[in-house]
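User: Could you check the structure of this?
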Amino acid sequence: MVGPQKILPSGAEPPASDADGISSPTDAPSQALIADEATLTAAWPLFEAVPDLIAVIVDNLVSRINGAGAALIGAANPAAVAGLRFDSIFDPRAVHTLLLHWQKGADQPGIGAWYRSRIARLDGAIIEADIRIAPMTSRGALGVVARPVDSPALRVDELSTAAHATEGVKQLVTNLAHELRTPLNAIIGFSDVIAQQMFGQIGSRYRSYASDIHDSGQHLLRVINDILDYAKLDAGQMILRPEPARIDEIVRASVRLVADQAERAGVTLADLIPGDGRIVNVDVTKIKQVLVNLLINSIKFTPRGGRVGVGLNQDEDGKVAVFVADSGIGMTEAEVAEALLPFHQPKQQIEGGYVGTGLGLPIAKALISLHGGEMRIDSVPKKGTTVRFTLPTVRE
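Assistant: Sure, the predicted structure tokens are below.
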């Protein structure tokens, strides 16, 4: 069965300015199939099940390719293809024509038309294939689907199918989180009543069990709230309610919320906050959420006897800069990048028995961005980590 018959113009030449590589067009339709790298990672098993070549291209390099794609070009495994130049596998003229056609909006937004091209296998053989290009993520990565001309093509848009499946999973998780929150609040409330012996004395063992149920319920509720917050941020539905407030009071209130946890962990909380009364226009609840997340992270990853400092200063642009610095286990640059990905935790944290959703830092960074600020992480392994974020001040 022969694939689609829309044939490339034979004389199409790449623009001179792009002769050295393929990059995502800047004026192309913006309907990316997948919002971010974390969602792409979650969806990748679906792409592995597709019998055609599926690849993700970033800056003209193959970032990902499925098993079927690696086999098609003669590679032993997908890892052998990662990092290869995209235009060393596909005809550059075909790729540029596809990009230009898609950029002009001649096809439906988000999914490009099929075109006939050639694929250069690693063993030097050339095979004819039908290919299509689509914007894979909102950060400019391109998705490519290719199938040999003589293959029994599936009549399904694989990229669209996978994207819809991923959206379905995200919606299911959000719905489950909402459904769990109501009974969980009842469990937390009633276990607290029992632990406090509000309706009569109970044995010490039962009080201990009730306290454990209460603490576990609180932990699960935080996990659920993180998932719901991330879903709102990912969908662009998070609403801020800003108001003028003193940043030193917000920071000190956040420190008080984690003081008991720091004491139990044997970690010193150092107050480096000047009481100069600078005013910021922020959603106070959300900024407290950011600070509590950062403080809990620092306490969690700082050994007993360590120190967590919280302070304020002003950057050169006149913005208020808040920092949380610890003497904990620290991270490499690669681990910092991984920690900022949703649902990811650096390997050393997992091996060290530190559990969590991997959403605290991504949510914190997104909330700061919504406020018009920036968040930066500086970390050194075995020395500690400093997280800084800025917030615009209210001008007089």
